[in-house]
Each structure stands twice: as C-alpha cells, then as structure tokens.
What we know:
The chain is α+β, with helices and mostly antiparallel strands. The protein has a domain at 57-124: Rossmann fold, CATH 3.40.50. The chain has four helices and four strands. The chain has a two-stranded parallel sheet with strand order 1-2. A two-stranded antiparallel ribbon has the order 3-4. A hairpin with a 2-residue loop joins strand 3 and strand 4. Helix 1 runs antiparallel to helix 2 and helix 2 (39-55) runs parallel beside helix 3 (73-86).
Amino acid sequence: MTVLKKVGLIWSFYKSFIFLSLIVTICFVVLFWEYHFNIFQILFWIKAVTLGITLRSKTKFVMLDEPFTHLNPLQIEKVKELLLEEKQNKGLLVTDHMFTHIIDISDSLYLLKNGKTLTYFVLR
Length: 124
C-alpha cells in the first residue's frame, strides 16, 4: 500500500469519525433540551453507544477498560447483558475494579500485579 493510499484511508476514517461524532452530539443535545435528560443519563447513553459500536464491530477480539464505571445498577445490568450476548461471537478482555460484575460475565479470571500473573481461575 502506497503512502498516498494510507493517507487517504486515514482521512476517510477521520471524516467518518467526525460525521458520526456530529450525529451523536446532535442526538444528545436533542435529548437534553427536548426530553430534559440530566447529564448523567446523557453520559450513560454516550457510553452505551460507544460500547455498542465497539462490541458490534467486525473484530474477533475487544478490550474494554472499566465499562461499569460511573453507571447505576440498572445500567450495569444492561451492559452485562450486552457483554454476555457478544461474548458468544468474539473474545472479550475486560478490566475493572468492580470484581463482582466481572465475575458475573467471565469464563476465566486473571489476577495481575506489576505485569505478572499472580492467579488464574476458570469459572465456567
């Protein structure tokens, strides 16, 4: 692939990202003004949209860092349902400090410290 094609590919990705960001921003402004959503509801939907786009992508593996952070219990349950559904189609690597939620969705757990594996558990 030539440098020009690589630059064109990056530019087309950048344009589509800007377009998607603009659409998402407009949707959230409408939700905020028209339906009086509070900022926490909007932040959840932003997180839900980005999680949905990431999990529904055509990749074979997805890495998520703290997907349960700043969510209320009902929202956490929805995210867990989405993760359980998508783990049938692809590999998931999820890191979080909320261990109980990680245990609920995991097939195996690794406990790491200073870049080394301390313990490995098979749950299912």
